[in-house]
Amino acid sequence: MGSNLPPTVHVIGGGLAGSEAAWQLAQAGVPVALHEMRAVRQTEAHKTDRLAELVCSNSFRSDDAENNAVGLLHEEMRRCGSLILAAADAHKLPAGGALAVDRDGFAETITSRLADHPLVTIGREEVAGLPPPEWDQVIVATGPLTSPALADAIHGLTGENALAFFDAIAPIVHRESIDFERAWFQSRYDKAGPAGDGADYINCSLDKAPYLAFVEALLAGEKTEFKAWESSTPYFEGCLPIEVMAARGPNTLRFGPMKPVGLVEPHTGRRPYAVVQLRQDNALGTLFNMVGFQTKLRHGEQVRIFRMIPGLERAEFARLGGLHRNTFLNSPRLLDRRLRLKVLPRLRFAGQITGVEGYVESAAIGLLAGRMAAADRLGQRLEAPPATTAMGALVNHITGGASAQTFQPMNINFGLFPPLADEERYRRGRLARKPALSARALNDLAVWLDGARQAAA
Q1: Statement: the pTM of the whole predicted model exceeds 0.90
Q2: Which end of the chain is more exposed for a tag (fewer CB within 10 A), N or C?
């Protein structure tokens, strides 16, 4: 590296947020040392040593930039030169209106792009405890599986108890083991997504009696026992284990992941009483994950109970469900508007550890943390995008928009956006409000990006 380059910024964690932060720094001309402990020390959920490995779903959710907040976030990140979105677009799979990816190709692309970048150095090592003082610019993007030593050091520095919740992993089924005399391909309302044709999901329907028997089996099935330190940890409402949902009432699943709307069973011509959907998980189309079926059932119980589903009687599982513990900061109390730790500003945080929930949200905070750290290194100052944008709305929420007393992880949603100037008129005509919010966001993002370019010139 040339002597005219600015000093190195250290990024701890090679997940989606850390990978995106490192890419943004390097693309701005700032050297990056990316520290990833996997290969030296594995986590409870990861299976490989690739950067940006997806450990749960392979879906980035809706790709509708006009009517859905997460789709808008996708588009904002594309316009900011996101590595994560570029890799997702390159490896997208059929998934109705969602952006789903081949997880192996996705992670391999990100790993190789970063490894090949001349300004990125990847170290396979655990950063135990606080980073050394000579690391004067650090982005901590260790995600929901932060190593205990680093988590304890952050706790000691801030005096804050880390908040925590459980996140569950859905099973993956071999397509060849699914009975298509019972199952069929269809997206809800036949909606085609970024890489699909309107028949992107495998559907397995249940009549009332089999559905109720399935619910009873979920409730009676043997569950994973929690360790003592995990017993008081709450679940994140957006990723509840299926048996926890079933315990809330016999119809909860029919109004959740097993809702039958927008589907017609071809064998009968009727709408199903309940349905299980499976979404393509790899580019070959040989693996499908059970949508919304994250679980803490024991593995043997999963096989037995999920084979009660019509079409899955002989299902073979490439991966069974699991459960892991997530940790995150009380960010409204601890972080400033530029994602820095108030008591130690050389540390900047990104990703799920900040209290955003979801792959894309985590990567978006990584993108902003990387750009902000690059601006600091280059003698500039970059503020977060306006709260009218999806990225700005997320930053606003985690750095003060949410209450520090009741802070919980949050997906991007239009409820985080400031109201429109003539909000009441849009509320009366609901269909027009979301496109108006999205149009305003992209206009304001363009102004923010233009300002950032002028400052860097």
Answers
A1: no
A2: C
Q: Provide long-range contacts, Cβ within 8 A and 24+ apart, for 431-436.
A: 434/66, 434/67, 434/68, 435/66, 435/67
Number of H helices, E strands in the chain: 13, 17
> CB neighbours of 269 closer than 8 A, spacing ≥ 6?
none
Residues 328, 235, 389, 401, CA torsion sign:
negative
Among the ranges given (99-108, 148-157, 419-428), the one the predictor scored with the smallest mean pLDDT: 419-428
Sketch out the chain's domains with CATH numbers.
9-162+329-456 (3.50.50.60), 168-325 (2.40.30.260)
Q: Using alpha carbons only, how large is the chain's radius of gyration in Å? A: 22
> Helices marked H in 259-358 — which ranges?
299-306, 331-334
Q: In angstroms, how far apart are the furthest CA atoms of the chain?
A: 72
Average the pLDDT over 159-175 and give the result: 78
CA dihedral angle for residue 285, residue 289, residue 292, residue 296, rounded to 10 degrees: -170
- Using the structure block, give the residue that is written with the tokens 């299980």: 276
User: Is the distance from CB of 363 to CB of 16 less than 8 angstroms?
Assistant: yes
CB 119 within 8 A of CB 26: yes
Q: Convert the pLDDT of each residue in 350-384 to its tens digit.
A: 999 999 989 999 999 999 999 999 999 999 999 99
Residue with tokens 């779903």: 57
